[in-house]
Structures are given as C-alpha cells and as structure tokens.
Amino acid sequence: MNDAARAEEFRRRLDAAAEATEAALDALLAPAALPGEVTRPARLLDAMRYASLGGGKRLRPFLVIESARLFDVTGESALRAACALEMIHCYSLAHDDLPAMDDDDLRRGRPTTHKAFDEATAILAGDGLLTYAFDVIADSATHADAGVRAALVLALARAAGLGGMVGGQALDLEAETAATPLTLDETLRMQAMKTGALLRFAVDAGAILGGAAANQARALTRYGEALGAAFQIADDILDAEGDTAALGKRAGKDADRGKATLVGLLGLDAARARRDALVEEATAALRETGLGEATAILAEAARFVAARRN
C-alpha cells in the first residue's frame, strides 16, 4: 500500500469508527431504563446526549477499534470499549468547559453543555457519562471473560482518575496561578496525565481485548504515550496559530490564561520539531510489535495527529 492509499484507508476507517461510535452511543443513551435503573430523567439524558453526540473526530474510539483489530478482535467488544472511553472523554470536556475550570462558551462549533443547559445540569451530565462508562465496560456484553473486563475497568480508572486525566487537570489549573511557571519536565508530566493518559488507554484497551503478548502490549503503550504527547503539542500549536471558526472552540485561550504549554516554553519552531520527533517515536514503537503492515493504519494515525488543523 503506497502513502496515498494508506492515507485514504486511514480516513475511511476513521470515518467508519466515528459513524459506528455515534450510532452505538445513540443506542446506549436511549430513554429506556436498564435493569437496575429506576428511570432516566429526560433533561439529564438530553444533556448527556448533547455532550457526547454529534461532533468530534472520535480519534480515541478509532484507536481502540484499530488496536483491537491488530489481534483480530472486531465487533461489539471493541466498539463498547471505544464508547466507554468516549464517554469519559466527553464528560471531561463538559466539566473542563465550566466557569470554575476553563470557562469556555464554545465546543465543537456550538455552545458548551453548561451554556446549552445550565451549570448544574452540565456537572450532572458529566457525572452521568463518567459512571455510565464503567457500566458499559463492566457489562458482559463487552466481553465474556470477567478477567478481561476487570483489566479494562482497572486500566480505564487509572487513566481517567487521580494519577491520570483528573490529576493532570488539577496540575493544569494549579499552574495558572503558580508563583513560577512549570518547568519543561513538569509540563510534560502534566500533559501526559491530562491528555496522554486516555490516548494511551485507547491502545492498551486493544491489547487487553486481544490478549496481546507482553512485548506487544509494551510497544503499543509506548506508541500511545508518544501519540498522546504529539497530540497535545499539536493542540498547543493550533491554539496559538488557529482561529476560532476552524477550531470549533476559542483560539488563543492558553496564552490568555497563562497555561503551561510547550509552545510557550520552547517556541513554535521547537514545538513543531518535538511533535514530529514524537510521531517518529510512535511509528518506531509500532515496528517493535512485530505485526508488520497490520500497524500501517495506526502509523498513519500518528501522522494525522501532527498534521491536523482542528
């Protein structure tokens, strides 16, 4: 497969993953109560659907689906794990946009959840998505093997919680009012938690679902870590260079709030060079899996992360 064909196949699979994820989330967030539930309040459900449906590239679900595909795992198992991860991601966006956090009015080209509803409902919608994610991933419909489900639950909790995404958000907020700016190492650690942890989990989930060998799982983890770091630098560059209409969210907010970014620490040229080096690191990690051409689409995903415009 040549470069053009690989890029075209990547876009086809990314779009297919987004379509499948949207349909699955729509079904999961239906009005009918599940066994053990009493009822699903209509306004809360509407806010959860608003926060999670109708937008986004669905990169994280794509990574779950494609990493699982490396081990011939397709269908409901990978899709449900992908949906659980996307629920976590969407909850984090709804909460990050709140006035007490990043105070944003625009997300994916439309009003943020707290603007479309209200702050209390946005908080509850995030709480609902977070909790439902673990409901979905722990359900036997995701995998028949309880050990696999438990491994997924543990890995997702570690990626999303105190030592992962939530902890990274806390460090990010602390940095805005700190007496001295974060160092390079401190910024890298914060970004690895806030952004990188869920992207790393996406490929770790595929390895768990597929029963990957230890060396393959480690290589995929390294890929996920490098991809996550490249994604965050690309996001920082877009915030510095992009415009609000193209991004679908407010541009320039990092500098306005004094956020710790690699663009601020290194400058644009050095940040771009670091981003590109991380893409090479990610593709090198894929080669270490020994899975050959099967990893080509994930390698293309790393290049896409660096080249994206929104």
TrEMBL record:
PANTHER family: FARNESYL DIPHOSPHATE SYNTHASE. Keywords: Isoprene biosynthesis, Magnesium, Metal-binding, Transferase. GO terms for molecular function: (2E,6E)-farnesyl diphosphate synthase activity. Belongs to the FPP/GGPP synthase family. Gene3D superfamilies: Farnesyl Diphosphate Synthase (1.10.600.10). It comes from the Bacteria. InterPro entries: Isoprenoid_synthase_dom_sf, Polyprenyl_synt, Polyprenyl_synt_CS, Prenyl_diphosphate_synthase. This is Farnesyl diphosphate synthase. Its cofactor is Mg(2+). Its EC number is 2.5.1.10. It is an enzyme of class 2 (transferase). Pfam families: polyprenyl_synt.
